[in-house]
Amino acid sequence: MIWIGSVVVIAALGLLFYAVWPRRDIRLSIAPRQVGVGDYRQNQLSGSSIERLLGPVWESISQRAFRATPEGLSDKFSKKLVIGGLSETWRIEVILAVKFIAAIFLFIFGIIFLPLETFTNKLLLAIGLGALGFFAPDAVINRKAEERQNLIRATLPETLDQLTVVVEAGLGFDSALRKVVSSSEGPLIDEFARAIRAMRLGLQRGDALEQIGERTEVPEVRQFVAAMRQADTLGVPIAQVLRTQSEHMRKLQKLEAEEAALKLPVKMTFPMVFCMLPALFVIILGPIVIRQLAGGA
Predict the structure, then answer these.
(1) Does residue 263 belong to any structural domain of this protein?
(2) Taking residues 71-96, what's their average pLDDT?
């Protein structure tokens, strides 16, 4: 049983290593006029032997993991990847496969190698390890999505200021947006660049901006998009709307900072009561207790 478990653990480690190790993309990217048997064979042989051996196996596992995941959970996971800006680099099938393999690997590892006497305790701890391996990628992706949302929220007022300056200089909103995108960087700029590409393909400006709000799920961005739609409908000058939105975003950031400062005493209560006060009592009362014990002896 130990040998079988060891083999399974080693195989799971190998698949995990193959999944997370950076490697070049070996998928076909040949123009239609270049497709041929020789080209296909040369493209397939361009990868290493490990890629040719484990690639089909890993692809099969990924597809099975994707099919085994309920549609609602996979859609929610895909949405998190979009919010975190990872949808173009991380495939959802690969991440789901990593989740399942990590859960199985940690479960088998707990069953075989945990030094517990009773099998029930070992089983419960192994189930806990398996759950940890299954939900660890979710925690990582949620953290990245939250960090990206906070960065978008922090850089939105500055970006609106840049748009205001360029629009007041005489450019239209679309041209100003392209100008800001070409001279700046960041997750919000990346979203604006995607909106520009969508507009070039024929999508209306309001719909392209609406997609930014759906991809980021940042309330401030949704508010900015709603204001731009209203400006287009009512004919309000774009520069005035941008300036008003920028000032409003800064006021919201100031209110959030004040709210966080007001919450700080409440958050400090737990570490003060359970960490600082016991040490303070030991320092103050310790010598008295020692003196009393020594006098009694």
Answers:
(1) no
(2) 83
